[in-house]
# Entry
Amino acid sequence: MYSAFLILIILTDVTSCQKVCSYQDVLDYLNLTTDNSVFKLTRPVLDYTHPTKVELDIILYAILAVIWNNERISWDPDQFCGITHITIPREILWKPDVFIYEMIQTDDSPQSYYISVAYDGTITSEDDIKIVSTCKMDVHKFPFDTQKCNITIGSASHCVDEMRLSPFSNSSRATQFSREVMKTQGEWEFLQLSISKVNMTFENKLWENLIYTFSMKRRPLLHVINFLLPILFFLTLDLASFFIADHRGEKLGFKVTVLLAISVLLLILNDILPSMSNKTPLIATYCIVIFALMLLSLLETILVTHLIEKDSQVKLKVKNEHKKAKTNNSDAEDKRQTCCSCICIVSSDEQQHELLPVAEVVNNSNHTGEYHVLVLILEELKELKKALNLHLSGSEEGGKYVQWAARINRVFFIFYAVTVSLFLSLMYTEWNT
# Structure
């Protein structure tokens, strides 16, 4: 009898070790059915004063993991062949009503149909979420800017007394995991993910929120090559245009062409920059100041061209007056020679036909002719002096305009070069701070 009893015990142990269990056994034990509304209508606590602790885990790859505890669900894994987790449809159980405050568009990502339930009542739900949210941008240092965007998660109906939110991962772990799973970053370079908890009071109730702050840095290389360097090249061309001769029209046309090119780049900048910003972007200041300097350079070229044109007009006027005076002098010379010839002819006739008693009359006639010759010579000298003074005054006036043009051009070039150097160094300092 004793041996038979031992054999029976051994067979019983073997039978118990070979027990087969299924997930349905756990569901039947918990009475989890689609018709049982106890598990999804109210917050899963046995005592309403107990808060439901919800843990959240967010990484930049757009995965939201939510973990909470259901006090109505628990089983002993030893009674169900060591089953510690089951997967059930998410519609069967209550889920925390967490939402993202900054969300401005409904998520259209495919949702998971199941949630994981542990033997101790811990429920885990993982979803891929595409977040389209608002973010306060600060583009003051564009394209060398660093942006910080927040994702605030909270409950719409449960205050702190009913539901407590806590992060599942700390900031360093979330940052490291985000860098590992991130495949492409595009224009932005991910820097850090920080997590903080804040409380706010509304309707005499305290609400708890989790804030995930993403820090990103823009990659500036594309904007530097496509925008900043072309403007710098146009500025260099505008400086080089000072070596073009001012008396030709090419310099003015060249500066106008460069100014139009800058205007096109300003239109492109208007499409690149965000429409709202707290401060004026440095790149806008960079473009406006360079545009203003080029406009001032164009005005200076117009002034210098006007002075040179006025100098040319003065020289042309002097040349015409000198030519007119030379014509008048030629007429006076012809008149003087005619008078001298008449005097000489009259003197010879008088010497041939008149007698000695009339010598006194002849002498008086000779003195009168010499007087007329002296008067004509004096008038000619006055005309020459007038023409010489006119030529000298015209040359001095014309040379004065050219000198002023040269001085203005030289001084403005020095001012332009120094201003550009100081401005570029200041912009470099501002972008690097």
Observations:
- The radius of gyration is 51 Å.
- The mean pLDDT is 79.
